[in-house]
Amino acid sequence: MKTMLAAYLPGNSTVDLREVAVPTPGINQVLIKMKSSGICGSDVHYIYHQHRATAAAPDKPLYQGFINGHEPCGQIVAMGQGCRHFKEGDRVLVYHISGCGFCPNCRRGFPISCTGEGKAAYGWQRDGGHAEYLLAEEKDLILLPDALSYEDGAFISCGVGTAYEGILRGEVSGSDNVLVVGLGPVGMMAMMLAKGRGAKRIIGVDMLPERLAMAKQLGVMDHGYLATTEGLPQIIAELTHGGADVALDCSGNAAGRLLALQSTADWGRVVYIGETGKVEFEVSADLNAPSTADYRLLGDQSVPYGKMRPRFNGLETVAA
Fold first, then answer.
1. Mean pLDDT value across residues 292-307
2. For residue 164, which of 275, 11, 44, 312 has the smallest C-alpha distance?
3. 291/282 Cα distance (integer angstroms)
4. What is the pLDDT of residues 57-69, one digit of tens each?
């Protein structure tokens, strides 16, 4: 029996490296030799803070009992019966949610919102990419363009794809003042992509001065502020002559999301990127919005599977 090393997360901020059998692909499945597998911010949160359960399985927290890693990218080395769209040797990334394929959301290309019983996230409810090999459903694969590396593919499969989807939903253009709240990997990528789309001015806000310094060093931020700065909405309004045209919150924090709303110009767009808890506010008291103002508030949990391949066109340009 051929074996491989695989990383499990049993809890208590630990990683358990085990030797397990290399899986055999079944019908409509492929075996992928892992080349790169990213560590997402949600991984870090659940490793060190909590193992979260789901409504579908309240007694079985995410990650426990499964190989970790939901940003996998590699090369197909074996295929089961019924596979028709890919071949051995193809470089692929794996969309991190495997939907049932039949519910209305899956049919529309949104398996992340799958309502069927078969929904399972790689690395959460089924084995993921932190191993030498990954067993995946052929329907979850996306061909990796030659211009992109395996590392690019792993990053795009969740983090970059999520940031880029937020940029597109916010309709960022060369005439926009763009505010990014939360400069972790997704926020940093949002600034890079906003710069790539020609944003007029990019403003960053974070709790950590070193993140602001990194953004400045990379040349993707024009103005940076600590989140503890007094009167930030007013400062941003004065800097931009009315507020940000597009505000992207990548912090997932209630205070950060409220700041994004408070710092947006009339007729501006606000995009909440990534997973988050709830944010509560009173429109009149917290936003100071006149009755004629119009804000567009958009959500972006992750890039939908159905939009992954078209999104590569822009990302290949950024990579080049």
1. 62
2. 312
3. 14
4. 555 555 678 899 9
Question: 63 phi and psi, to 5 degrees?
Answer: 80, -40
- List, in order, residues 6 or more apart from 50 with CB less than 8 Å away: none
Rounded alpha-carbon distances, angstroms, from residue 235 to 205, 224, 227, 246: 12, 11, 12, 16
Residues 6 or more apart whose CB falls under 8 angstroms from that of 319 comprise 147, 148, 152
Q: What percent of the chain has pLDDT over 90?
A: 55
Q: Domain segments of the chain: what residues?
A: 3-154, 163-300
Sequence letter at residue 14: T
Contact predicate 257/281, CB 8 Å: no
CA gap 31, 46 in Å, rounded = 27
How far is CA 292 from its chain centroid? Answer: 34
Cβ contact 132:17 at 8 Å: no
Q: Give the model's pLDDT for residue 292.
A: 46
What topology does CATH give the domain 3-154? Quinone Oxidoreductase; Chain A, domain 1 (3.90.180)
Question: Please, where are the H alpha helices in 108-253?
Answer: 150-155, 161-169, 185-196, 209-218, 232-240
- The b-or-e profile of 107-140 (16+ CB within 10 A means b, else e) is eeebbbbbeeeebbbbbbbbbbbbbebbbbbbbb
Q: In degrees rounded to 5, what are phi and psi of residue 165?
A: -60, -40
Q: Which fold is adopted by the domain 163-300? A: Rossmann fold (3.40.50)
Q: Could you report the per-residue pLDDT of 3-36, keeping only the tens digit for each?
A: 999 998 876 777 889 999 999 999 999 999 999 9
In the prediction, which pLDDT does 184 show?
Answer: 92
pLDDT tens string 86-129: 999 999 999 988 999 899 989 888 888 888 888 888 998 899 99
Predicted pLDDT of residue 288: 55
